[in-house]
C-alpha cells in the first residue's frame, strides 16, 4: 500500500473516532470551568447514544436523511436534562461530586439497558439505516496534496466538532459569559460579591456538559457502532475526561488531546489494512487507546492545574 493511501485511511479514521471525544470533552470543560467535577461524562454519552439510536429507529421512515441530525438534537436535550441530576446532587445538595458522577454512569447504563430490553425484547437494538456517512467534500476534496488527506472520506460531525471547539474557546476566553463562568470556577465568593449568581452559572454549565455529552454519544452511535448495546459506549467518556485534563481544561487543548486519542482508537479500526500495523497482534491495537489514556494522565495530571474551586461546593457567606 502506498504511504499516502495509508495516511488517508488513518486520518479519516482518526477524525471519525475523535469527533465524539471532542464534543464530550468540551462538555467537561464547561462543567469543570464552573467548579463542578463531572466524572459522569461516560453516562451522558450513554444516554446520548441510547436516545439517538431509539429515535433513529423509530422515525427514520418519516424523516429520511435528516434522521441522524434530528436524533442528535433530541440527544442534546435528553443529555442536558439527565446532567441536571448531577447538578442537583453536586450543587444543591453538596454531595461528593466524584461519587455523584460515578452514580450517573451506572444509572445511565442501567436505565438504557432496562428500556432496551422492554422495547426490543433483547439486549441490543437493531442496526440503523440512516447514519452519518463518510463523504467527500465538494470542491475541497480535489485540492492538491491536502484534499485527499482531510476532505475525503470524512463525516460532517468531524468538521463541526473542530469548529465548535474553536467557538467554545472564543466564548470562554473572549466573552463576558466566559469570564463569569471561569470566575465562578476560580473564586466563587469573589464572583458572588460582583453580582454573579454562582448556583445558576454552575447549573447551566453542568446542563451544557450534558448537552455536549449527548452530542458525543449520538455521533458515536450513529457513525461508528450504528446500534446500541451495553458495550456501545465502553470507556469513551473516560477518554473524553482524560482529554479535558490532558488539554488543561482548555477547549483547544481538549480538542488536540481528543484528536490524539482518536488516532489511537483508529489504529484498532484500520490496523488490519495498514502495512506494518497488520503484523501487530490485534489485541495490542485494541488496548492502545486505554493505555495511552493512562500514560497521558500519569504524565500530565500532576502538571495540569484545575480551576481552583473545582470540586468544592459553594456555600454563600463561607470562605
Automatic annotation (TrEMBL):
It is a multi-pass membrane protein. CDD domains: TM_PBP1_transp_TpRbsC_like (cd06580). InterPro entries: ABC_transp_permease (IPR001851). The chain crosses the membrane at residues 6-31, 43-63, 69-89, 101-120, 154-173, 203-222, 283-301. Keywords: Cell membrane, Membrane, Transmembrane, Transmembrane helix. Coiled coil: none annotated. GO terms for cellular component: plasma membrane. This is ABC transporter permease.
Amino acid at each position: 500500500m502506498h504511504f499516502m493511501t495509508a495516511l488517508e485511511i488513518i486520518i479519516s479514521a482518526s477524525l471519525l473516532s475523535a469527533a465524539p471525544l471532542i464534543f464530550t470533552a468540551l462538555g467537561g470543560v464547561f462543567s469543570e470551568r464552573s467548579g463542578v467535577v463531572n466524572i459522569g461524562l461516560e453516562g451522558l454519552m450513554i444516554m446520548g447514544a441510547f436516545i439517538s439510536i431509539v429515535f433513529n429507529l423509530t422515525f427514520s421512515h418519516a424523516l429520511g436523511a435528516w434522521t441522524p441530525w434530528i436524533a442528535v438534537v433530541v440527544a442534546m436535550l435528553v443529555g442536558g436534562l439527565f446532567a441536571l441530576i448531577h447538578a442537583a446532587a453536586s450543587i444543591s445538595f453538596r454531595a461528593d461530586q466524584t461519587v455523584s458522577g460515578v452514580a450517573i454512569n451506572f444509572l445511565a447504563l442501567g436505565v438504557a439497558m432496562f428500556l432496551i430490553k422492554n422495547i426490543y425484547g433483547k439486549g441490543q437494538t437493531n442496526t440503523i439505516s440512516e447514519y452519518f456517512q463518510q463523504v467527500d467534500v465538494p470542491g475541497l476534496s480535489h485540492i492538491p496534496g491536502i484534499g485527499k488527506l482531510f476532505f475525503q472520506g470524512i463525516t460532517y460531525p468531524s468538521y463541526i466538532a473542530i469548529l465548535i471547539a474553536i467557538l467554545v474557546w472564543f466564548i470562554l476566553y473572549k466573552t463576558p459569559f466566559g469570564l463569569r463562568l471561569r470566575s465562578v470556577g476560580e473564586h466563587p465568593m469573589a464572583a458572588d460579591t460582583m453580582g454573579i449568581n454562582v448556583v445558576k452559572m454552575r447549573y447551566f454549565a453542568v446542563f451544557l456538559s450534558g448537552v455536549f455529552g449527548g452530542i458525543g454519544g449520538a455521533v458515536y452511535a450513529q457513525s461508528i457502532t450504528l446500534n446500541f448495546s451495553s458495550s456501545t459506549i465502553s470507556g469513551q467518556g473516560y477518554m473524553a475526561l482524560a482529554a479535558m485534563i490532558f488539554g488543561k481544561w482548555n477547549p483547544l487543548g481538549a480538542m488536540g488531546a481528543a484528536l490524539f486519542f482518536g488516532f489511537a482508537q483508529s489504529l484498532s479500526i484500520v490496523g488490519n489494512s495498514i502495512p506494518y500495523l497488520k503484523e501487530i497482534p490485534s489485541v495490542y491495537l485494541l488496548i492502545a487507546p486505554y493505555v495511552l489514556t493512562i500514560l497521558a494522565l500519569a504524565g500530565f495530571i500532576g502538571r495540569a492545574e484545575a480551576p481552583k474551586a473545582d470540586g468544592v461546593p459553594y456555600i454563600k457567606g463561607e470562605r
